[in-house]
Amino acid sequence: MSEILNRYDFVMLFDCENGNPNGDPDAGNMPRVDAETSIGIVTDVCIKRKIRNYVETVKDGVGGFNILVKTDRALNSKFTEAYEACNLKKGEKGKSVESVEAARQYICQNYYDVRAFGAVMSTGDDPCGIVRGPIQINFARSVEPVLPQEITITRQAVTTVKDKETKNTEMGKKNFIPYGLYRAEGYVSALLAKKTGFDENDLELLWTSIVNMFEIDHSAARGKMCLRKLYIFKHSSPLGDAPSNVLFDKITINKKQDVDVSRNFSDYKIEIDKILPEGVVLIER
Question: Which own/partner pairs from 252-256 qualify as long-range (CB within 8 Å, at least 24 positions apart)?
Fold first, then answer.
């Protein structure tokens, strides 16, 4: 296990063609948008879910790479499992600081997503404390406004016997955007990584997961989604050598002048200012 000694900031560019990148339950599952600007939004929760799914797929059965946040069991039962594994007293209120810390360390060692993203684990009778994760990801926002659409579809299979007596098809709705290029930004804290045990191997898995997170997540509802670019700013020290906003501003994306309506990644021009602050290097994937 090799400890992370560098701070990282990173930028992800991904696009969605004829699909719904992140439905909004408060708006009938229409693609999420900023109400004032119509800029498309994909939440950090959505992005981290795809990373979790990739890690779970490629590390299935490998110790230390379990995923805490998923639908298999209640979270409190997993916290109790940590107490059992550490031979700690269960089911008592007012746990000692030592017990909570031992359970927290067990969770960090065994669950990749907690080592990476952190978790609030203070619920139930067997709390495991709070972990602040070294990996933080912002909402993704589209480069240009997106145009959510709703189309009517038909299904040639009727649900109930009674309905079958009067009709042969049923109607439905599908929500999508024709095209959207999204940009998300994130951070890796070497100092927090040390506290959770997130190491260089975990970091490499993170980059691999981001590059491939859409490849195991294809569906008709999400359309064609692709990770187009991953830009990683590596600092020379744990605290970093420049503010993240200065580095993020080094990457600009604009629609090409001869394009009226963007419908493809090639309709955009990416410009990178490679004059970086001392101690920072840019890695492209």
Answer: 253/13, 253/143, 253/181, 253/183, 255/143, 255/144
CB 129 within 8 A of CB 101: yes
Q: Return the beta strands (E) in the chain as ranges.
A: 8-19, 23-24, 30-31, 39-42, 118-121, 129-132, 135-137, 140-145, 149-155, 170-188, 224-235, 251-255, 268-272, 280-284
The residues spanned by each domain of the chain are: 8-151+174-284
Return the closest-CA partner of residue 112 out of 62, 71, 74, 78. Answer: 62
Predicted TM-score (pTM) of the model is 0.94
Q: Give the three-state DSSP class for 32.
A: coil
Distance CA 36, CA 55 (A): 36
Q: Over the stretch 143-164, which tens digit does the pLDDT of each residue have?
A: 999 999 999 988 888 888 888 8
CB half-sphere exposure, 62, CA atoms < 13 A: 8
Q: Which of 56, 62, 61, 17 is nearest to 40 (CA)?
A: 17
pLDDT at position 93: 67
How confident is the model over 269-278, as pLDDT tens digits? 999 999 999 9
DSSP states of 200-269: HHHHHHHHHHHHHTTTT--BTTTBEEEEEEEEEEEESSSS-SS-HHHHHTTEEEEE-TT-SS--SGGGEE
Give CA–CA dist 213/48, Å, rounded: 9
